[in-house]
């Protein structure tokens, strides 16, 4: 840790997408529904190896959301099965591997963190309760397909693991704003340090002029929709009336809750920006 303090000290979240934590729903008593959907969406994004941050929905101002390519909420759950994440970085990795991203305090790099949870579980009679039970299984061959952050190009990618004292520069393949590489074998944890320079990427490795504009997103008009009730406890909850979503809930009810939740977020945090379509897709897809 001390050797690579610049990776971790005062680092900040650097996901391409964001998942909104439904804190506004919890404050209104919808604990079971909101958290169940939140965990389901989060698990899906983790399993799909999406680089995402988490932000409480009552802090989701347009300024904070503007830097993200995609915004997911508990409303996203019904549509995630058909999601292809076309505009995001992708990773071909086992389900036992998790990925995340951060920016160091001094910027200049985009750090991709890999954690491998794969291990051989000892039998009940073999368990000792000690470190010997951690029969770790290394992982190899993970393929990364990164989208360069807007306004930047990738100079090089370096690989670091606790098992190796040094830093290894990886061979990369460039295609437009995408950079691809294959990760070396590692045991539990590794970091790919993606070194950045101002200017968009090109397939020949050269850079275009630096990015100067700001990204933006718009919000749909959801005026006139019926709001969610002020409470949604399990005891006495009528799913057909309140849009209660639990495991096994029919898609029609889940869709209803998604629309109502989008209205809640929109009314609380998202100003009108001239869009009239009453779609909740804006909370999953950025314009």
Overview of the structural elements:
With 287 residues, this protein is α+β, with helices and mostly antiparallel strands. The chain is 18% helix and 25% strand. The strands form four sheets. Strands 1-6-7-15-11-12 form a six-stranded antiparallel beta sheet, with no helix packed on it. The chain has a four-stranded antiparallel beta sheet with strand order 5-10-14-13, with no helix packed on it. It is globular, with a radius of gyration of 21 Å. Residues 208-255 and 271-287 have low confidence and may be disordered.
Short summary:
By secondary structure, the chain is α+β, with helices and mostly antiparallel strands. The chain has helices at 5-8, 23-26, 31-47, 62-65, 239-242, 251-269, and strands at 12-13, 17-21, 52-56, 70-72, 90-92, 97-103, 109-116, 119-120, 135-136, 143-147, 152-160, 168-169, 173-175, 178-182, 189-198.
Labels describing this entry:
287 residues, alpha+beta, 6 helices, globular
Regarding quaternary structure, what we see is single chain
Strand order of the largest sheet: 1-6-7-15-11-12
Q: Largest sheet at a glance? A: 6 strands, antiparallel
Number of DSSP strand runs: 15
Tell me the fraction of residues in β-strands, as a range.
15-25%
**Helix count, per DSSP?**
6
Report mean pLDDT, rounded to a whole number: 76
Q: Which value, in Å, is the CA radius of gyration?
A: 21 Å
Detail the poorly predicted runs. 208-255, 271-287
Series of H and E elements: HEEHHEHEEEEEEEEEEEEHH
For the record, give the distance between the C-alpha atoms at the N and C termini, rounded to a whole number. Answer: 39 Å
* Overall SS class: alpha+beta
- Shape field: globular
DSSP helix fraction: 10-25%
